[in-house]
Amino acid sequence: MRDVAKVLGLPPDQINALADAFSRWSDSLPSPERLREYGFDADMPILKRVLALTGELIGFPRHLSQHPGGFVISEHPLETLVPVENAAMADRTIIQWDKDDLDLVGLLKVDILALGMLSALRRTFDLVHLHRGKLWTLADLPGDDRKTYEMISRADTIGVFQIESRAQMAMLPRLRPEKFYDLVIEVAIVRPGPIQGDMVHPYLRRRN
């Protein structure tokens, strides 16, 4: 929507307001009533054009991207099975299909990821050992530290793997995790499937 509105000449403040009128959890266009709530005239020709073009583009990729840790494994040379092209980096190639295409033809895709937070924890343990003389591991960290969960419930989680995204930080003060299993639910429920299936609000109502 933002790109369409920008191309059609809407000013940045109106683009931001219009973006707020869209639901984060749905691909549907905002209703005329919701548009009026955000100060828009639903009968404006330019607005109708923005919404019409946005509706046509929903579901299309916004841009092409390369998965940094995705590997495709096959019994036969990949270039005989799928379209392959040179990547920007020397001696690297990428497949032009996405993960869904690969799944349809039965090719195995494996994601190999590195988590920076694990390195940060290791360096922290090294510093504790150096300055405090204590040799800690992950197993030594308490799973029920009250102050930690208070920080999490305030969404003070920048740099914390899995719960630092905007969507996760918006949910944390509402869910108010008190134990590790609460975080398991938090990470699992802030996903496209549960959100589109309208599972979030019923869970919060029952929990609270």
TrEMBL record:
The family database entries (InterPro entries) matched by this protein are listed as:
DNA_pol3_alpha_NTPase_dom (IPR011708), DNA_pol3_finger (IPR040982), DnaE2/DnaE/PolC (IPR004805)
| Keyword Amino-acid biosynthesis (UniProt) | no
Key word S-adenosyl-L-methionine present: no
Where in the numbering of this chain does the Bacterial DNA polymerase III alpha subunit NTPase domain appear? 1-114
All copies of the DNA polymerase III alpha subunit finger domain together span 117-208
Q: Which UniProt keywords apply?
A: Cytoplasm, DNA damage, DNA repair, DNA replication, DNA-directed DNA polymerase, Nucleotidyltransferase, Transferase
Its GO biological process annotations read: DNA repair; DNA replication
Quote the Pfam families the UniProt record gives: DNA_pol3_alpha, DNA_pol3_finger
Q: Which GO terms describe its molecular function?
A: 3'-5' exonuclease activity; DNA-directed DNA polymerase activity
Name of this chain's protein? Error-prone DNA polymerase
